[in-house]
Amino acid sequence: MxxxxxxxxxxxxxxxxxxxxxxDMRICAxxxxxxxxxxxxxxxxxxxxxxxxxxDTGVDIPLGDRINMGYMGTIVSKGKGVGIVVATGMQTxxxxxxxxxxxxxxxxxxxxxx
Length: 114
What we know:
Blueprint: E1 12-16, E2 24-36, H1 38-41, E3 47-48, E4 69-70, E5 75-87, H2 93-105
Antiparallel strand pairs: 1-5, 2-3, 2-4, 2-5
């Protein structure tokens, strides 16, 4: 299993059943690859991943509809695949969520805390 601290954008990672996805990556090979993305999307069922490019609709595609991507912290529930790392650490989707949470904490005190 590859760890998050050992990859950089552009690295190629092999994914297999039971792996935790170590970074955000574009899936470039899939053999019945299913990834549990409940951490990000709340979906109850693992998502079957495909390698085809998504249609450019001119709007930002929701995470749950990006079937050619794997995201850091999600779990391979079935199959095998290969991905090319596109983001690590705080640049990943999970990192962006963590950053929003940290920024929201600040010195914002509720009326009760004041």
